[in-house]
């Protein structure tokens, strides 16, 4: 469906939403600053669909919240229709990933609730709610309760709530990541139909996603973000005619290009030792890393990372995280867009569980956040440390990271490697048998 307003404009358009030179950090309870965004500038123009694409944790949702006026950035300017934002952006409504429905209210009541909160007169509330419910294809379900609805239908209610506010810009934060793949395809097409129809419908859409196919299908411009801290890597314009077909050679070529761009950014061709030196623990579970190595070994030891994601049914960004973790442990190498087992990776795949744990242990102890804790535990007469010691080590080594998330990964890896045990009840870390002093040569 061609959208006239998305055609290239002869005169420069002024943006609806805009941020310039925005940096943002969160103050963590430890007093540390978590730098989330660095010097981000971007705009959403009338009539366009803009997607924010990037790895988990790069700050996509934070950008969306800043543009919506839910968060005031630490530094930089935010405008709506050219005016500095003061409070919530007037023409914006948001569809959240989590649906955010009131379970005790029916479909109609859920939609009416946001309109009542917006202080619209009662007749207007009823008319707009009915209109929005029809628009998202939920006529006949007005009296149903969220528990009676499928994930896709719940998200339709989320969309009806946002659309009933008649926003100029619809913000969608990973709206389809919790619904099944076929429903997601249908919902994306329906959103674009609503957007293309116009009249009182949103002029523009800002979509947060980590699904490359989704952004290639939906967006006019794709803002590719990098992480730690989040920043704009590049902006890719997508002028493919609508309606688009996921399987068309043009869409597949764009998916491939975006895939190359992200793989190049996220898995740069640097030696594993250099990657490990940065000491960022990728948010991947030990079992996921082991799963990847076994999967690769069963397929001759090498595969395109995009294909691995598709065949293992994993979100591409998360798969990259698992590959990064495996690379950090010297189990894979990542030339271009391939994940290739290293000789150590092959040996790992062939080893028995104890051999695998021994490899993990050896590699973890090459990282300071594990070796520092091991040294401290050996020194401590009780060979027991409070988790705060580990948290401080994490904050010291990785000040830009969310230390609770890192700690969860740290515990998982250390447990798998039989390196440390963590007792959730008393919050203490102890050496595991394999590394306990009696068995550690002096
Ligand atoms: N209120 C907050 N306080 C502290 N840290 C926060 C807060 N909100 C977000 N963060 C952190 O900021 C970073 C960016 O979060 P954000 O949700 O914007 O990323 P994202 O790219 O949307 O991630 P995802 O794709 O996983 O949802 C993360 O490390 C997150 O843990």
UniProtKB/TrEMBL annotation:
Gene3D superfamilies, A to Z: P-loop containing nucleotide triphosphate hydrolases
Protein name per UniProt: ABC transporter ATP-binding protein
Keywords of the record: ATP-binding, Nucleotide-binding, Transport
Pfam family, one: ABC_tran
SMART domains according to UniProt: AAA
CDD domains assigned to the protein according to its UniProt record, in alphabetical order: ABC_NrtD_SsuB_transporters
UniProt-listed InterPro entries: AAA+_ATPase, AAA-associated_dom_C, ABC_transporter-like_ATP-bd, ABC_transporter-like_CS, ABC_transporter_ATP-bind, P-loop_NTPase
GO-annotated molecular function: ATP binding
Keyword Nucleotide-binding: yes
Domain ABC transporter: 19-252
PANTHER family: ALIPHATIC SULFONATES IMPORT ATP-BINDING PROTEIN SSUB, TAURINE IMPORT ATP-BINDING PROTEIN-RELATED
The keyword Transport is annotated on this UniProt entry: yes
């Amino acid at each position: 469906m061609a959208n006239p307003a998305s055609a290239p404009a002869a005169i420069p358009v002024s943006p609806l939403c805009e941020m310039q030179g925005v940096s943002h950090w969160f103050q963590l309870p430890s007093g540390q600053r978590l730098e989330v965004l660095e010097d981000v500038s971007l705009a959403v123009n009338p009539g366009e669909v803009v997607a924010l694409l990037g790895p988990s944790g790069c700050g996509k949702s934070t950008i969306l919240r800043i543009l919506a006026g839910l968060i005031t950035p630490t530094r930089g300017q935010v405008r709506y229709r050219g005016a500095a934002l003061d409070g919530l952006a007037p023409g914006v409504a948001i569809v959240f990933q989590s649906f955010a429905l009131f379970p005790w209210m029916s479909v109609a009541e859920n939609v009416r609730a946001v309109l009542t909160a917006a202080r619209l007169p009662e007749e207007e509330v009823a008319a707009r709610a009915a209109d929005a419910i029809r628009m998202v294809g939920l006529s006949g379900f007005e009296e149903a309760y969220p528990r009676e609805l499928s994930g896709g239908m719940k998200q339709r209610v989320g969309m009806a709530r946002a659309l009933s506010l008649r926003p100029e810009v619809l913000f969608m934060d990973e709206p389809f990541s919790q619904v099944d793949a076929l429903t997601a395809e249908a919902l994306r097409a329906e959103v674009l139909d609503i957007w293309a129809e116009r009249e009182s419908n949103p002029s523009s859409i800002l979509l947060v996603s980590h699904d490359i196919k989704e952004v290639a299908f939906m967006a006019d411009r794709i803002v590719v973000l990098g992480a730690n801290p989040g920043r704009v890597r590049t902006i890719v314009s997508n002028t493919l005619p609508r309606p688009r077909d996921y399987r068309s050679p043009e869409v597949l070529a764009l998916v491939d290009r975006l895939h190359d761009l992200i793989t190049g950014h996220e898995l740069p061709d640097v030696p594993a030792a250099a990657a490990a030196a940065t000491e960022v623990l990728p948010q991947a579970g030990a079992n996921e890393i082991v799963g990847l190595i076994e999967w690769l070994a069963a397929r001759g030891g090498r595969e395109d990372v995009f294909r691995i994601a598709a065949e293992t049914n994993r979100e591409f960004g998360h798969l990259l995280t698992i590959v990064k973790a495996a690379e950090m442990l010297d189990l894979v190498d990542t030339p271009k867009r391939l994940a290739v087992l290293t000789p150590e990776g092959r040996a790992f795949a062939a080893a028995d569980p104890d051999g695998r744990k021994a490899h993990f242990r050896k590699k973890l102890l090459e990282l300071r956040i594990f070796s520092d804790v091991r040294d401290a535990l050996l020194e401590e007469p009780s060979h027991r440390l409070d988790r705060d010691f580990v948290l401080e080590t994490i904050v010291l080594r990785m000040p830009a990271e969310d230390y609770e998330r890192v700690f969860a990964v740290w515990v998982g890896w250390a447990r798998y490697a039989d390196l440390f045990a963590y007792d959730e009840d008393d919050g203490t870390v102890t050496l595991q048998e394999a590394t306990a002093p009696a068995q550690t040569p002096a």
